[in-house]
Amino acid sequence: MMTIRSLISALVLAALCGCSQSDRLQQVLADGELTVVSRNSPTTYYLDKDGAAGFEHDLAQLLAEELGVNLRMETAYSLDGIFRRLQREEADVAAAGLTLTDDRSQRFSHSIAYATMVPRVVYRTGNRRPDGLDDLGELQLVVLAGSSHEQTLKVMAEEDRPELRWEAVQGADTMELLERVDNGSADLAVIDSSEFRMQQSLYPMLEVAFDLGPEREMVWYLPPGRKYHSLRRRMDGFLTQLQGDGRLDRLREQYFGHTTVLSRIGSHTFARNIRNKLPAYRDLIRQVADEYQLDWHLLAAVSYQESHWEPEATSPTGVRGMMMLTQLTAKELGVRDRLDPLQSLRGGARYLKDLRRRLPRDIHEPDRTWMALAAYNIGLAHLEDARVLTERMGGDPHLWSDVMAHLPLLQKREHYRTTRYGYARGGEAMHFVQNIRHYYSILQWQDIPANQPGQPLNPDDYLPLALREKRFLAL
Ligand code: GLU
User: Which residue, 200, 221, 45, is CA-closest to 148?
Assistant: First the structure.
């Protein structure tokens, strides 16, 4: 119990600290740090090869930059966990793809909306597709515990659908729900349209049955109380500005505008490019490969996978040049002009070589090169996670074929939640390496003079699949 004396000293202390204690924005500016709580998922926050990424992370990073402070990003493992942290004022902002609801807005402060989405009910094609909530019958519906969707269902059940049943799944992201519908342990799941769009390519059998309601707004939440007013005002101003100058649209496009299905370039296109584009860069690629003691066919294959030998290539995510380096990687590698093919090739070659060197000693060639390529795409940390998963599941973490088979598991929640670095686009990394191996083997093969056909190159003719596969193994 508080004695009168301790009460008085607490009051005196509070008075002495003055407005810096009562205004969180001032405190954030003075401490130089903004704490944001999110959840580890592909639509919010995850680590990729250049570090932290995700729509919410990038948005929060921009806010921190605007305030001139460091961003401290934390992860909660359930939606309730996110709100608990806000309640205890352990975080300044919750940025986690959170829907604006009446219930939440009574308990917390929030920003203006920075995105909208529609709650969708998804099912597995081939199974019965209900038309709406009145058509559920015996179908089993799952939602994320503590989510806006659960709240919507509760209200509906109270108001006019007492028969409505669902299961609330504990966790922080919707992959678990999708997995359940995909493997048949649930029939339907409620999930935000933005998340479903992003994850649909992983679950091609899942489709939308119907929408659970109209479009909803996505907001950032803050702890309740006056103390957070000026921070919220500053955030709103920042989001309005981002909306006005197009930066918000660009960020949205980067993360949600396209699903990252890797396009497999047809052999014919590749053959045409070997003929038409490669000659202009062959000497340059050879020169750089020599400098770094790499097989030039390998460097040529990587640069083809990255940019199709286009020195001016640019992707919507801001990677550029022949080797598609990010700004950060380029900086670390001392590349000043990413569009200069020589600099770009040198940067990429150095990066690849460095990754190969840093892999554990007991990974031998050729697996060592394939794993270095995977790390080139996804980062060493996630590759290590995939190797740990491989070993745990009875595979050999020294073999690319085993590790490759486990890479896509980094996209599945039941697996990535057990890893050190969390979600990663492992499937993409796997295709990246396999494509490069494919190009590499063709480039090597067609470079042997005896194999040079007199007529235009057509890999389908000169390199039958069986032979190609055999060469993969032999490399
Ligand atoms: N937007 C949801 C919420 O705020 C979470 C994500 C989902 O369940 O799809 O609760």
Answer: 221
